[in-house]
Design brief:
D-Maltodextrin-Binding Protein, domain 2; alpha/beta; 24% strand; 2 domains; 239 residues; single chain
Length: 239
């Protein structure tokens, strides 16, 4: 075989190999996003996903970038509601204060006055004559949206409010400051803070842009089934 023929033959082999490689479909991982408000669900999610050990899966925590997720687990109903939504638990929104705070019987009207800035001292609600330190979560946080809708009725939070970038940051801020007040989903509350019920219930939902299939479908079924619900029970009200 001449040099030219050998070169052409080699090119044909390389081209065929390249075509064969391009015909192999790339396996995309299943992307599951948990928003920070529902991070206590992570153990249930990872346990359920462990039932599919051969699957390629990525679990992330995020407020943003959910457009690329196959499943999003979140607090409350998004607006608009996506084509697929499955409830896996129920959650309650709580007001949180320092354990040493004596103002443990606030009304919703008093809470609204505090967070709007109309009421600025604990002495106005039976506490000591000290300034109230208001803490709020990020604007994208589901708990904040529910709080502002149900408690402030769309009103504005005081400009003097401190910003907690994460529920864990809210927990640390309030537990470390006798004059602080904030709010958290019940699953985030610990003995480090005192809690006051606001009477606000929210669903914990798995949402998606289409009906889940394969491993995604199995995950939803597991979370709603006996295994998932047993893990969820210590943190949430189960259905």
């Amino acid at each position: 075989m001449g040099v030219l023929k050998r070169l052409i033959f080699l090119i044909l082999i390389l081209t065929a190999c390249g075509q064969a490689d391009s015909d192999i479909p790339e396996t995309e991982p299943l992307v599951v996003v948990l928003t920070p408000d529902v991070l206590p669900l992570r153990l249930a999610v990872t346990t359920c996903l462990a039932q599919s050990p051969d699957a390629l899966i990525r679990v992330e925590e995020s407020y943003l970038g959910q457009m690329d997720a196959d499943l999003v687990i979140r607090l409350g109903e998004p607006d608009p509601l996506p084509p697929f939504a499955a409830q896996v638990a129920s959650e309650e929104l709580l007001l949180v204060v320092h354990p040493g705070n004596q103002s443990a019987s606030l009304t919703l009207d008093q809470v609204a006055d505090i967070f709007s800035g109309r009421m600025r001292h604990w002495s106005e609600v039976g506490g000591e004559d000290r300034e109230i330190h208001v803490w709020v979560l990020l604007k994208v946080d589901e708990a904040r949206k529910v709080f502002e809708r149900e408690v402030l009725h769309g009103g504005l939070v005081t400009l003097n409010a401190f910003l907690a970038p994460h529920p864990n940051a809210m927990l640390e801020a309030v537990s470390g400051d006798p004059d602080a007040v904030g709010y958290l989903p019940k699953a985030w509350s610990t003995s480090e803070v005192a809690t006051i019920s606001l009477g606000i219930q929210m669903p914990v939902l798995v949402v998606a842009d289409e009906e889940p299939q394969g491993v995604a479908r199995e995950l939803v079924a597991c979370l709603q089934g006996d295994l998932g619900q047993e893990i969820i029970k210590p943190y949430y009200e189960v259905e």
